[in-house]
Here is the input.
Amino acid sequence: MALQVERNAPLAGKVALVTGGSRGIGAAIANRLAADGASVAITYSKDADAASSVVKEIERGSGKAIAIQANAADAEAVRNAVEMTVTTLGRLDVLVNNAGIAIPKPFEEATLEEMDRVININIRGVLVTTQAALKHMKSGGRIIMIGSAVGERVAAPGLVPYAATKGAVKMFSQALAREIGSRGITVNNVQPGPIDTELNPATGEWAVPQKAATALDRYGQVDEIAAMVAFIAGPESSYITGANLTVDGGMNA
Ligand code: NDP
Here is the structure.
């Protein structure tokens, strides 16, 4: 079977939803999928101005985008965001579960409220969003998690509940890939290493051991994650499912 791929716009006619797309890795993914031809919906929880600048940037490049406020921890808001994406943009082909938080500190100092927040956004939000999206996805659909390299190996202290949620995201992806493969929908988990964003600044106190743990001796850039997501979202990744794709500068090597 020869794949017919439009090189300039491999996602032409497709619709993508990127959770937490107003800055950082999510914004880069939204921009990249739009550049590849998709119409893109992004969600955010707090910063409407940041979300609106991502939409404007995509529109300046002649793309189509919308921003929807939807806290990933709020199941009703998340379901509404999926419905609004389909109502406004007409369909749903690609879901990128990117929204996520970390609260770095020693495990024994983590409060119940902090652990609940990390679990509700990083796991519960992913499950609920995916369930809502699956109602609309057809053969060729793509579900993509932004897990983490620490979902497999943890090189430094301070990220215990976070690492546990990303390990859960990894197994969720593998289990779901088995269950919905027969529908022609793929499920994959992109696992970034240290990427320079507001969540994990390359200049912060926590950056030194992370940079040192990479084989390339540097932080990654958001576009280096977006490139992997674009490939997995596109037609050429049709036989990849249930995979954990680590993009970490060799941190877990
Ligand atoms: P940032 O904090 O830079 O950006 C997070 C994005 O998610 C923002 O758009 C933010 O917008 C949104 N967001 C945060 N909380 C919520 C919420 N409750 N509901 C909806 N949207 C939300 O993070 P990164 O870009 O660094 O991280 C993105 C993903 O990548 C996360 O899942 C993270 O765990 C993962 N990752 C990051 C790594 C890194 O080194 N940076 C490494 C490995 C994985 P707003 O504040 O307006 O809600």
About this structure: Residues 98 and 225 are 11 Å apart (CA to CA). Residues 15-247 form a domain with the Rossmann fold fold (CATH 3.40.50.720). The first strand starts at residue 15 and ends at 18.
